[in-house]
């Protein structure tokens, strides 16, 4: 499962991306609202992908990109930008960001960029999503079986307690 960190000062954008990524089988390992927090969390979480807003409180998304690339030159950073920030996006790409998404965004476009960055075709995503669902179903089944076994053990202990 690919790990994603979301960096955006808008709680609404962070929540929207988090829900989208989780429904598509990604592990959202962190969501932060500033460049400084992104740098700290990156060290802890080691995400495969970072979505990074350009305009952040404190250090900018561009400065955060520089620092993250210094820490891991293989990190895949996708910039999130408002219309009209073309020059800044180009600078981020020059520094090592791999792609960008323009706000307001469509969920399909976000996933298209994620797939492109990861080299996943739409068919592969469907297979990947199905494998995730199968894995979750197996885990839920195993949890239910464990609960049944535990209940049987408890019932058995109750029966033993009342034997004269």
Automatic annotation (TrEMBL):
SUPFAM superfamilies: CheY-like. GO terms for biological process: phosphorelay signal transduction system. Keywords: Phosphoprotein. Pfam families: Response_reg. The keyword Phosphoprotein applies. Residues 124-164 are annotated as: Disordered. Residues 133-164 have a biased composition (Basic and acidic residues). The modification 4-aspartylphosphate is found at residue 53. InterPro entries: CheY-like_superfamily (IPR011006), Sig_transdc_resp-reg_receiver (IPR001789), ST_Response_Regulator (IPR052048). Residues 3-118 form the Response regulatory domain. May play the central regulatory role in sporulation. It may be an element of the effector pathway responsible for the activation of sporulation genes in response to nutritional stress. Spo0A may act in concert with spo0H (a sigma factor) to control the expression of some genes that are critical to the sporulation process. This is Stage 0 sporulation protein A homolog. It comes from Clostridium magnum DSM 2767. The gene is cheY_5.
